Amino acid sequence: MDLDLLRGLAQPSTTKIVLCSLDGLGGLPRPETGKSELETARIPHLHALAARSACGLLRHVGPGITPGSGPGHLGLFGYDPLRHPVGRGVLEALGIDFPLTPGDVAARGNFCTVDGEGRITDRRAGRISTDLCVKLCERLRQIHGEGAELLIEPVKEHRFVLVLRGQGLSGHLSETDPQALGTPPLPVRALDAAAERTAVIVNQFIARARELLRDDAPANMILLRGFDTQPALPLFPEIYSFRAAAIAAYPMYRGLARLVGMEVLKTGTTFADEIETLRKQWTAHDFFFVHYKDTDKAGEDGDFDAKVAALERFDAELPGILALEPDVLAVSGDHSTPSILAAHGWQPVPALVASRYCGADQVSRFTERDCASGALGVLPAQELMPILMANALRFIKYGA
Is residue 293 within 8 Å of 299, Cβ to Cβ? Predict the structure, then answer.
């Protein structure tokens, strides 16, 4: 979508939009039953909402391309993720309110587990506690880089942020995470000549980290990915002419919302806390991005039953959102995370749009197969926001 065109059509209004992103929403059938997580879960409120909504599937990047959480959410916000790439490290840093300065290179880090041969056995180190992550980050701060200041900050559980600060640094680096088990972490490679010196600094840091963590199983090694510097994106509230707020318990998603100019609201650690924050802030904003993490976490762990339970927990909280009577309510996700893959998937993600103007279709269940026959069709994710704006009566007519 042309963001300048949308900016020219947007007009102020009093209508309210809520966009719920169930991280990793989409799934695949369990071989034993032939049913996906959504088809297995008891989600009566979502099914009832689908029955009075326009439904479809969202594709976030392109056919067969598996999106990360950053591009997936940028698509939900109306940005073309191919035109506006953002490294995961920047999002993690912004999510913990780390003050990035021009030229800083940020990377998302995982503490991981390797065996005696240096092969990865757990990319997330058993999801160690945040308290342990804090202690391990303190140890990594003993490492000093030659030619750059190294800044290490804990995020949540096994996640941390590495920021390189200095002159002449580049974020054009490959990742060390092979995103597979049974293989060692990869060395960092410069993706162009300007990044050669930065690659040397990062590889020296990794070698020193390996020595410091050697005896600390399960968190006895690190993985780094998403190297980048902070980009300048068109600001979401200015494009759409409204007061936009984000409610997310996980830091990375707060960082993504902050990057595009949303106000990031303080909230608690549970989804029930997020719904309470939505209720309390209802009159102060026009647009709310509400993030739900549990579906993705269970999918990445390969736990089908846990993902089913996560869907049912969301469904139990949905009446709290409906009670606020938003003018437009959208429910979808940033990517699929099928439990049978235990990873992000390339499959399109179910979506629904509920408003008095959307026009219900024949879909009566919120599942992958049902939504495939909905009125929205298979839609590029960046086209969802214009549909929400239109249903909220926030666009003027284009042309004479």
Answer: no
| String of DSSP letters for 50-72 | HHTSEEEEEESSSTTPPPPHHHH
Question: How many Å separate Cα 375 from the centre of its chain?
Answer: 26
**Residue 200 and residue 135 in contact, taking contact as beta carbons nearer than 8 Å:** no
pLDDT tens sequence across 333-351: 999 999 999 999 999 999 9
CB-based contacts of 323: which residues, under 8 Å, 6+ apart?
Answer: none
Is residue 288 classed as helix, strand or coil in its secondary structure? strand
Q: How far apart are the first and last CA of the chain?
A: 21
Using CA atoms, how far residue 396 sits from 4, 10, 285, 378, in Å, is 14, 7, 21, 25
- What span, in angstroms and rounded, lies between the C-alpha atoms of 8 and 234? 13
CA dihedral 31, 37, 39, 40 (to 10 degrees): 80
Q: What is the pLDDT of residues 217-228, one digit of tens each?
A: 899 999 999 999
Whether the CB-CB separation of 73 and 334 falls below 8 Å is answered with yes
Measured at the CA of 73, the angle between CA 354 and CA 307, to 5 degrees, comes to: 75
Give yes or no for residue 211 having a pLDDT over 90. Answer: yes
The residue among 85, 81, 110, 108 whose CA lies nearest residue 230 is 85
* Neighbour tally for 129: CB within 10 Å: 12
Containing H/E element for 277? Answer: helix 271-280
Burial profile 215-244: b = 16 or more Cβ within 10 angstroms, e = fewer: ebebbbbbbbbbbbbbeebeebbebbbbeb
Domains and CATH numbers, the chain: 3-86+232-391 (3.40.720.10), 100-228 (3.30.70)
Backbone angles phi, psi at 257, to 5 degrees: -65, -40
How many Å apart are CA 304 and CA 318, to the nearest integer? 21
- 1 pLDDT band, cuts 50/70/90, is confident
Distance between CA 124 and CA 310 in Å, rounded?
20
The secondary structure element, H or E, covering residue 296 is helix 294-300
How far are the Cα atoms of 96, 186, 223 from residue 161, in angstroms, in the given order? Answer: 9, 18, 11
